[in-house]
Here is the input.
Amino acid sequence: MAKTLCGTGSEVSVVLKAAEELKAAGILATVISMPSFKIFEEQDEAYKASIFPDGVPKISVEAGATMGWWKYVGRHGAAIGIDRFGASSPGPIVLEKFGISVANVVEHAKKLVKK
Here is the structure.
């Protein structure tokens, strides 16, 4: 089953690596880089549906709040991000602790495929 994996900036590299691991496991994933919700929302409905097709599991990865992503991943998708403030550590350590990692994205993707 295909999946859609999304990121906005630095997370895209994590998503690309996760897509490679998923492909090796026989799961195809489309990677979406969406740096601007505003510009995306200005597009016509056919275009938006082509990017986020119905019936395809979706996962977003955001090194910030997940709030804006639920509109795109839906109730049956997954939004991986950091929904709190106050973490203090070198960036890579914070990202790993909050699930912004290839392993976590792959794990979520595999769970969604099983549903």
Remarks:
- The longest helix spans residues 11-24.
- The chain has a mean pLDDT of 89.
